[in-house]
Amino acid sequence: MSLLITGGRIVTDKDDYVADILCDGETIAAIGSQLSAPQDATVIDAAGKLVMPGFIDPHVHVYLPFMGTYAKDDWDSVSRAAIVGGTTSLIEMICPGRDEDPWDAYQLWRGKAEGTAACDFSFHMGVTNWTQQTPDLLRRIVDDGVASFKVFLAYKGALGVDDQELFNTLELAEQLGVIVTAHCENETLVAELQQRLLAAGRTGPEWHEPSRPTIVEASGVEHITTFAQLTGAHVYVVHTSNQAAVEAAAAARSRGVNVWVETVISYLTLDETYAQKPDFEGAKYVMSPPIRGKAEQEYLWRALAAGEVSTVATDHAPFDFHGQKEMGRDNFTLIPNGIPSVQDRVNLLYTHGVATGKIDLQRFVDSASTQAAKLFGLYPQKGAIQVGADADLVVYDPGYRGKISADTHLMNTDYSAFEGWEIKGRPEVVTVRGKVMAEGGQFVGELGHGRFLARKPTH
Q1: CATH number 3.30.70.1290 is the correct assignment for the domain at 54-375
Q2: Which of 315, 349, 307, 320 is nearest to 91 (CA)?
Q3: Domain boundaries, the chain
Q4: What average pLDDT does the segment 264-293 reach?
Q5: How far apart are CA 152 and CA 288, in angstroms?
Q6: Which of 91, 139, 362, 424 has the greatest count of CB atoms below 10 A from its CB?
Q7: Residue 167: which pLDDT band, with cuts at 50, 70 and 90?
Q8: Which residues are modified to N6-carboxylysine (predicted)?
Q9: 34-38, 277-281, 401-405: which has the minimum mean pLDDT?
Q10: CB neighbours of 254 closer than 8 A, spacing ≥ 6?
């Protein structure tokens, strides 16, 4: 089966030119002018459109037992939503409980994606405990194709690791060439601030941000990079929300630490006033680290443009407002953390980044696709438009105008954090390994088309 995309403006992290792309089966076979279509080829006219590599979200939660409930999406809903939004590969965080066997957790998480996912997928293996068996189990998981770990310096008594566990994890990662992704906060300070606020009767969602101030997040970055410097491990700071945290990573980098920074689309588009909405509406915007003030948002855009921030992910963690977020109506620490956004990331980044001139098209592609592919062992199979790469392609219509709404999104949540927001541009056609999976904002593919992406350590 062949696919020919003609006359599109091809944009990658480095290039910008007009050409045709011929896909043969699952990969790109040729790039050039006036390419001939084989008899059986599907032909897509991309004149006036952008053609970019399929986008990669390196930080999502799909199956997630968390805070007394479960995330609402499964691989049916999340992969359809991702594809319609232009994302063709997802990397999910595996978050086992402290008493859960890592191999069993890996098998459980992977089994929920296999045979259902429409997009390609991989995992970061969460390390939430350290026993005598842990190193051998983690080596087994790495050998099976998972080339990254995840640690939490938050959620004390639940997912968080202590310093000995952190040191052991980074030491093993360095030995194996595995990158460690890290949620960076100071869990002890967060727990203390939470209790003091609750004791003072400050129970609403507007107090979530003051319980996790920027300095607590920056402290977490300093902590992980100190351990990285001692062990030589490579680390990736997830969902970074503020200037102090980004600068802590930059300071470590200047000392020779191998550290990269991710932000998420919510920090670039929302500000703390959303979590302060009355009548408990602010609960819709509770995530950790919290959404910050406008000044932090503006700084993150500049840092993204300058490359100090490498990637834009979502930290997609979908919970309903009714029945789930409401669990914390009288205690903000019980509000399930997370904002559903996997379908909206690419369009919001284009609308509020490219269309406003905050970032250019190359940085757009780099931060939402290519950097993730390079950091997590997928490049140039993913994140590239070149002969031999997977035919994951997004034909993007910059002239489209529309609005985001929970009434039309494919995510399995009862609200959208961006309800009524206008978007400028959307994916017109999305392919995953040469197969057309979305057209005109509609999912037209097949569930189960997605494939596990076995990755080799590259760090």
Answers
A1: no
A2: 315
A3: 2-52+389-399+424-443, 54-375
A4: 98
A5: 11
A6: 91
A7: very high
A8: 150
A9: 34-38
A10: none
Structure tokens at 96: 């086992």
The token pair that represents 45 in the structure block: 């006219």
pLDDT tens digits for range 26-35: 999 999 999 9
- In this structure, which CATH number among 2.30.40.10, 2.70.150.10, 1.20.1420.30, 2.60.40.290 belongs to the domain 2-52+389-399+424-443? 2.30.40.10
**Tokens encoding 124:** 């970061």
Residue 138, token pair as written in the block: 């983690």
Measured between alpha carbons, how far is 231 from 228 in angstroms, rounded to an integer? Answer: 5
pTM, entire model: 0.98
Q: What is the pLDDT of residues 40-70, one digit of tens each?
A: 899 999 999 999 999 999 999 999 998 889 9
pLDDT tens-place string over residues 80-102: 999 999 999 999 999 999 999 99
Residue 261: HSE in the Cβ half-sphere, 13 Å Cα cutoff: 31
| Residue 158 pLDDT grade (very low, low, confident, very high; cuts 50, 70, 90) | confident
Which distant-in-sequence residues (6+ apart) come within 8 Å of 223 by Cβ?
153, 184, 186
**Number of neighbouring beta carbons within 10 Å of residue 111:** 11
Number of H helices, E strands in the chain: 12, 19
For the chain, give the number of residues. 459
Asked if pLDDT for residue 266 goes beyond 90, the answer is yes
Q: What's the sign of the alpha-carbon dihedral 172, 178, 179, 185?
A: negative
**DSSP one-letter string for 247-258:** HHHHHHHHTT--
One-letter amino acid for residue 448 of the chain? G
- pLDDT for 157 beyond 80: no
Tell me what the mean pLDDT of segment 140-165 comes to.
93
Record the tokens describing residue 110, joined without a space.
């992977």
| Separation CA 109–CA 63 (nearest Å) | 7
* Residue owning tokens 């992910």: 313
Three-class SS of residue 70? strand
How far, CA to CA in Å, does 166 sit from each of 72, 173, 230, 265, 311? 30, 11, 12, 28, 24
Classify residue 37 by its DSSP letter: P
Residues 6+ apart with CB under 8 A from 333: 194, 198, 211
CB count in 10 Å sphere of residue 333 = 18
